[in-house]
Amino acid sequence: MATVDPLVILQKACDGRALSVAAEELDVSPQYLSDVLHRRREPGPKILKAIGLERVVEYRRIKK
After folding, report:
1. Running DSSP on this structure, what letter comes out for residue 40?
2. 62 domain-assigned
3. Minimal CB count within 10 Å: which of 13, 19, 52, 53?
4. pLDDT (tens digit, 9 = 90+) per residue, 20-62?
5. What would the mean pLDDT of 13-20 be, rounded to a whole number?
């Protein structure tokens, strides 16, 4: 499974719009959106759903 960087997709989705406008469209606070875009917080379910992603946690054996 290929991994994607949700911040790259989110930055493209917000491109050219004021942070407050993008945050309102995502139904999150501008501060939270700013924190996510600056990698201070992880994107939550609302943001991930808006950009067409879901968080998947995976565990694997360590190769010896």
Report:
1. S
2. no
3. 52
4. 999 999 999 999 999 999 999 999 999 999 999 999 888 989 9
5. 90
Give the tokens for residue 28.
């999150």
Range of the domain at 21: 6-50
Please, is 32 exposed, middle or buried when counting C-beta atoms within 10 Å of its C-beta (0-12, 13-18, 19+)?
Answer: middle
Rounded-to-integer distance, Cα 62 and Cα 64, Å: 6
Number of folded domains in the chain? 1
What's the pLDDT at 64? Answer: 84
Please classify residue 50 by burial: count the beta carbons closer than 10 Å to its beta carbon, then call 0-12 exposed, 13-18 middle and 19+ buried: middle
CA distances from 20 to 2, 3, 25, 48 (A): 32, 29, 9, 18
